Structures are given as C-alpha cells and as structure tokens.
Amino acid sequence: MYDLFVLGQLMDESMNGYLMQQILQQIVGKQRKISFGMIYPLFKRLNEAGYITLNDYLEGNKRSKKIATITDLGRQRFQELMMQKVPLNPNLEFIYTVKFRNFHQVKPALRQQILNEYKEYLLDSQKSLQQQVTSMKKTPISKEDLKNAQWVLSLQQVQMQAALDWVNASLKKL
C-alpha cells in the first residue's frame, strides 16, 4: 500500500526518511500514526527489490542521512502500481488519494482510467447506500434510532454526490 506512495514521491525528487514520513503523515492525517519504524523498513525492502537506492549523505557535523532515489526499475514498478485496479478494502480511499496526487506522473489516458474506476466505485457505493435506506425501514428498531440512522445515511449520500461531482468535473477537464 505504501510502495506506491514512496515511489510516487521519489519520482519527483530524492529524499530522506524524515521528509517522507512528514509528507505521508500529512496525507493520512491524525487518523493514523506514521512512524519511522514503518518508513525505514519500507525503504530497506524497496532497496532490496531494486526499486530505490539508499545513499548516505553527511551534512556538516550532523548524523548521516539515508537519501532514497528511485531507480529505472522503481519507475517501472510505479507505473505498474498506478495501472493496477484498486481493491475493495479499508485502504481504498487512501490508495486513490495517492494515485490522484501522482497524476502529473502518468499519461492522460491512465488518469482517465483511474478516474473512471473511482467513479464506478462511487456509483456502486451510492447504490449500496440507497439499498441501506430502503432496507433500514424494514429493520425493527426504535423510531429515534431509525431517524438518526437515516440522518447519518443522508450525510453519506451528500458526501458521495460531492465526490461524484468532483470526478465528473475532473473527467471533463481531461
């Protein structure tokens, strides 16, 4: 899941683990804690796979830093990951966010493919929400619970529609 993020960031410029951690933390927000204990093993694994190189960089009298640089094999892997369909899982929104942030690295045809796949996911989710609204009325729960559940579903529907509007506008720009 984080391979795409790291490779995408390195497509723009080489960087150390500290900067990589800061950028990733900004993307995931406060919901998840991104530790260096996650970044450095990821760097090591990507290095061993040949996707990146790690070089020590000494700045003055400070401790040396490991600078990660993407390789040609890493650029190829990045393109492969961008082309992969995003699986339905709890990380789906994060993966799409990473893909969207890397649109400048891929051709317009791939951008369109990714946006269309996301749109398909949103439309399926919208149908599922509508089914929930319908089936909820048949569920034997208290009127107050039903009212609150419908209220929450209405929020989800508004969010889904906003995302669909965003996708459609993005597709028009392409």
From TrEMBL:
InterPro entries according to UniProt: Tscrpt_reg_PadR_N, WH-like_DNA-bd_sf, WH_DNA-bd_sf
SUPFAM superfamilies on file: Winged helix' DNA-binding domain (SSF46785)
Ranges for domain Transcription regulator PadR N-terminal: 6-80
Classification via Gene3D superfamilies: Winged helix-like DNA-binding domain superfamily/Winged helix DNA-binding domain
The protein's name: PadR family transcriptional regulator
